[in-house]
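note to self — DONT lose this again. spent like an hour looking for the file last time. sequence + predicted structure for the chain T wanted, 499 res
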Amino acid sequence: MFERAIAEMRALSPATFNQWFHGVQFEDLTDGVLSLRAQNEFVMEWVRENFLPVLAEKIRRQTGWSVQTRWTLDPKLERPLADGVTQAPIRPRPLMLRPSASVPPPPLPAVTAAAMAAAAAAAHAGPGGADGASEVGGGLTLVQGGGSGDGPRSQRGAMPEELNAKHTFGTFVVGPSNQLAHAAAVAAAGGGGRRYNPLFICGGTGLGKTHLVHAIAYRVWEERPAARIIYVSAERFTNEFIAAIQHHKMDEFRAKYRTACDLLLVDDIQFLAGREQTQEEFFHTFNALHASDRQIVVTSDKYPQNLERMAERLVSRFSWGLVADIQVPELETRVAIVQHKAAQEGIVLGDDVALYLAQTISSNVRELEGTLIRLAAKSSLTGQPVDLAFAKGEISATAPRADRMSVEDIQRAVCHHFHLRSIDLTSKDRHKSVAFARHVAMYLCKQRLKCSFPEIGRAFGNRDHTTVMSAVRKIEAQRESDPQVRAHLEALERKLAEG
């Protein structure tokens, strides 16, 4: 795949290609991460700015991957791309990493008391401590229990069964709404760039938080075989903690999370709200892992400062590293998601159908993909192609009224309520009454349709997304403090609910 993309690049301008790619060497292409070696920083910057966007797009068209690039500087290159050498090993992405139902998953390594003590000492001593324990791929080498003569040896740890084999970086569609979170996740998995610890990923339901967490786990599992990975929901962490107290196994619980763990991934941390004893335990677990520079990744549906009934010291620690949010994807990103999912599932889908689905379902990526799968299943049963007429008929027949609502519906309702013309909302008119109605309409589009700020801006006369953001926040504040504004909103919401 890389050879074909680079050949197409060379054909565009052979002389220019040879001039710059004489200082670039191909290393690897795995799961959407392209590793390149540059002769110096000047060459790296020039290629990154002038050639890489086109090259990444060519690879994306061939594979469906959203390509991220990892650079290494090396003045002595053995296989410059200008010489036509692209034969560095390309590791295939595993199709299915989860064991089948008939084959039990590989057991976790049995850790002897001596190994556990050594690991605990290492956690306190830090890198290069006096305990002498060796590190393999970022994880301590464990001693496998058994007969005499067994020595230290590296082995691949078990992969958590809860992970979805399809949730990799290669299958994650990157757009402006999730670019920061994706880049931070790649870095957390060791894919280059600054690594933040902890990484706190926040966003609404179905926007890709769990996908990124699974992708981090898979990348680490592939590249650091000895790494011990724990993926757990906040609810499960709580249940395990309660069980450990009940059965007097707190030492084992703490060893699992504080000592025998190189990567801790915690989903839906908001469910620790109000559980003071569990928060206390997680606080000390966090401190132990962070002190030994072991990666912690946490997801939530709220920003740390908005977490309710959460200990202040935990909220503070969640902000130590990077807080990366995922917004509702823009229309273009949603279209790319639909097309990518269709290609992944072998569904023949026209561009018009992809656009229709992306316009109709705007708030939830999971729902968007689920609707596509449902249409494909119905198509296979009835023998009808998944064309625009078929998609419109199925969605209108099954979707609730609220899901079929559009920005235009809200604009019409607001204009009727405030006795305005539809053109007033998209005009440059700044009269107080028109501006207020416009702000209300923007607020309702955000709350009811979950549209992104740029999408709303385009629907209201191509206004900037910061203008929309300001309008939404203003109405939110007035709804709490101004009874008249609240009455307008409640009347409009009733009208919209009635259809």
